[in-house]
Amino acid sequence: MLRHAFRCYQTTTGNFMMKELSKKPLIVVLGATGTGKSQLAVDLATRFDGEIINGDAMQMYDGLPIVTNKITLEEQQGIPHHLLGFIALESEPWNVGLFKKKASKIIEEIRSRGRLPILVGGTHYYTQSLLFEDTLVEIGSAEETPPSLEVAAPERTFAILEGPIEDIIQKLREVDPVMAERWHPNERRKLRRSLEIYLTTGKRASDIYAEQKRHKRRMSNSGSETAIHGETTTKDDPTLLFWVHSDSDVLKKRLDDRVDKMVQTGLLDEVKAMGSFLERQKERGASVDLSRGIWVSIGWKEFEEYLTALKSGTCSAEELEKLYALSVEKTQIATRQYAKYQIRWIRRKLIKALAEAGKLENLYLLDATDVSLWTTNASMPAIDITKKLLDGEALPQPQGFSDAAQKLLTPVLDDELKETDFRQECETCHVTCVAEHQWLGHLKSRRHRALERKKIKNAANGRSRKIDHSSNNTEIP
């Protein structure tokens, strides 16, 4: 257990202030989108005199509060938030190495003020980079790549990276067949990044990551310490992780409703503003990589077809309405898929890493399924556990909090991960796949694609929305 950390005292307002800096506690809030992570971080910061560090890659961009689902000023309740809304759209996207460097510095600055640092966000590989010194992050996007592999504007040197996906796949099969087989043909960013690594380093990405795995095994066999520690903590410093979790069926409806609310409050205006910004950049001759940064946020690509049709002026009002409804449906689907990805990362990577480090007892699952019970099931338990940590008291066993905690916080073997954690059910075709290769094969099948198109068209036809199809003057300065 984590003990003898900070001591804290209670103020007349009921909040707690830290008065002893013998240790360096760090609170981490993670979980799927739409579960209430930001709210919990504010609850904890308010109670324990904390400051919040944003760990969501998209929310680092300036503007676009609806597209990126930023916490509002009112919701921040006066709590300082760092790394939130500060990157200009035309700036080079951040990577995990830069995030780790900047966030580590901010955490130390917060500690120097005698306050509690609280990291919150859904970009979980960012979070994991701060927790572990030797973090293995698989290549999934440009932002996920280790900092040593980052190079500036590779497309300027290697034209193939901007060419057809067929050319990228063919070349990757020649130089790194392992990575070519790993990614689905539709995963352009991942395929492109794997080839980019070879072109810029002369080494195959598969070899680089194989060596990282061998190094990790050597460290483990030699008995080296693998506990939670990095630039922000040492193996003796207390770290708490709160996983805000909701039942999948409840979360699905919540996310669908959230997208509807985003549409009602101006999502389309922000997407149009992004389109206007993109046009201005192209007019200036500036290249924009649509496979990175804000351009991969949920909302932009889902509405791109609608915006193109709207701009062309060749579609009827009925056709535009169907495309609009289709875009909303795509946004909802993408949001649900992203939530599944976030949970998958926690179960397959973070929990595994914590278990290997002997620190799984640091992770607590909080039930946020019923929002009316937020205080009872999520906020107060987190506050109670944090107070115990800061007071140096014994912490409760995480698995005993609920049935969900017992199930989800139990590490699974690699073979079980491949089968059980890869389990996916296609809501369209009512087909269940228990392995990733089966799932990818199903998604490529003619039957699935045909039924998916039919489902989306039916949903589009069923929507009756009054839409202003006139051009919008909203622009990003």
Automatic annotation (TrEMBL):
Gene Ontology process terms (BP): tRNA modification
The protein's enzyme class: transferase
Lineage: Eukaryota, Fungi, Dikarya, Ascomycota, Pezizomycotina
Catalyzed reactions: adenosine(37) in tRNA + dimethylallyl diphosphate = N(6)-dimethylallyladenosine(37) in tRNA + diphosphate
Keyword Repeat: no
Keywords for the protein's UniProt record, in alphabetical order: ATP-binding, Cytoplasm, Nucleotide-binding, Transferase, tRNA processing
Pfam short name (any one): IPPT
Protein's job: Catalyzes the transfer of a dimethylallyl group onto the adenine at position 37.
Chain segments carrying region Disordered: 454-477
Top-level taxonomic group: Eukaryota
Listed HAMAP family: IPP_trans (MF_00185)
Source organism of the structure: Hymenoscyphus fraxineus
Protein name: tRNA dimethylallyltransferase
EC assignment: 2.5.1.75
